Amino acid sequence: MPKESSSSSTVPLSTPRALARLAPFVKPVAGRLIGGGLSALAAAVIALCIPLLLQVVLEGPIATGEIGAIIWGAVAVTVLALGEALMVWLRRQFVLNPATQVEYRMRTQLYSSLQRLPVAFHDRWQSGQLLSRMMQDIGLIRRWLAFGLVLLVVNLLTIVIGAALLFRWHWLLGTIFLITAVPLWISGFLFEKRYGVLTRRSQDQAGDLATSVEESVHGIRVLKAFGRGKHALVKFARQAESLRETELSKARSVGWIWFWLVLMPEIAFALNLVAGIWLIAQGALNAPELFAYFAMATVLRWPIESIGFLFSFMLDARTATDRVFEIYDEQNTITDPESPVSIAEPRGELAFEGARFRYQDARPHERDLLDGIDLVLRPGETMALVGITGSGKTTLTTLPTRLYDVTGGKVTLDGVDVRDLTLAELRTHIAMAFEDATLFSATVRENVLLGRADLDVHSAEAERVLREALDVAQAGFVDTLPEGVETMIGEEGLSLSGGQRQRLALARAVAAKPKVLVLDDPLSALDVDTEALVEEALRHVLAETTALIVAHRPSTVALADRVALLQNGKVTAVGAHSELLRTSAHYRHVISSLEAEEAARTGAIPVVAGASVAEAATTAPKAAHGTPPSSDGAANDTHAENEEVQA
After folding, report:
1. How far apart, in whole angstroms, are the C-alpha atoms of residue 339 and residue 365?
2. Paired residues of 373 in beta bridges
3. CATH match for 350-436+516-646 among 3.30.479.30, 3.40.640.10, 3.30.420.40, 3.40.50.300
4. Confidence label for 66 from pLDDT (cuts 50, 70 and 90)
5. What is the pTM of this model?
6. Which of 70-79, 388-397, 484-493 has the highest mean pLDDT?
């Protein structure tokens, strides 16, 4: 479940005011919706005219036995019925297209909002909740606009008009009708309060269920590998049962309102029958008038009975509107500056000046995860960033492109604060490749050239850039795919191996031709031979590109001109690899840890370059003992331990 949005802390809106928020989407098509409403109202008025015509026929032609007049009366009733059917057809023609236009606009704006909102927003929201709002809630709003809203307004007007017409025969009959309607309004008020809560709970639970399905599908390999399919099924069944119970509660609430909607008209019919017979006996009413009265009451029965369904439909739409506007109302904290600066000829100098960062759910007493980073990458320099797990390496790499904004200090590109650049320009100058390579359901070509909006993906120049990037990433395997670079690679690239996905993600970053390249351990899924080839090709690319590389392997450190050591939220040492081995015990500890992990992966014997194994063995425990991770900052530490996935 997502955290409460900013709007949730304000006074809740009434149902009409909540639904009125749809006005900007409805306004362009309001004319056609009004036309649909008028058509429906015309159909209702025609239906109300039929009892009046029947009274005339009963009092005239039937009473006098004029066969020709009776036939003309039947023809008139048929014409009215055809007119009613025509108005119903017109209503559908008027409203169907506008309602789908509203649905289209709302979906497009919601998707735009999801793209615009910062990563911090997506950290808080489950994807299933977003998906249910995008598909289920907006679809429900469309159906309500096309059907529920029009019929609710028209049926209420029909009841008012019909009730007024009932008084034309006798005030007593009309009064009985109104009195028997009072319980309906009371039960409707109680129904709104309970049903609104249940509807919100149901739609949120449906979002949770969608999240569970999505997680189990994406994680099917893990579930199968660990034999946890039944465990996932038990969790899903528990969530599905909660949703079922909520839906049953909704059904019971609807059943209760239907009980009154069916019972009270029947009671009104019975009382009116007794009153009508008594009025006939008193000479205050005749039989054709009583017949017409009951015909009118019968016409009104459907509008009255439909109110319960339409009322619940309106509450469903109100809840769906609230849920969708929770996304619309989210504030984007990472935006373009009011007076942007532009870098005409970027050199690629990247600097962190007292940069601080803490996650949004960190408690006040916790220290910043990045606690004053001072680091300068010279133009064309390749710098490796090393540190123990949870030190904040991946979090640091998200700051240059403003996936997150610093909470203190600043990050500069060629002396310009990155917050003074437009996001479009900033992300043209700086490109990223993540350890967890994400690809899209598109062709290989489209995935690799994702960052080159300036190119026609099928042009000769695009082909040249594509091939260079694939060569650097040693991704020649794409030519063996069924359709080469035009092969659709499937959802999130899961049809490829981990190493193949990572090479395509690296090719995507290289193809962007940035002045600064930020790489978060982009070679972790590659075998030793492929890694060596990629590293050799990267050396040529990085010769003219400033690069910040998060190193999880000793071999990655070898790519760097200098190495920065991240410890306790600060950069505690910067220098050449050999220099840091001589001067920093903590650096030797980190490198020995990386070599141990590499040895476990490859079966090799770990050796710390520039220092003896014995020295590493003696210094590592001291370093580990002397510089423990901070015990405070629980929320930031939790984020840090999972920071690679959060990027």
Report:
1. 35
2. 355
3. 3.40.50.300
4. confident
5. 0.72
6. 388-397
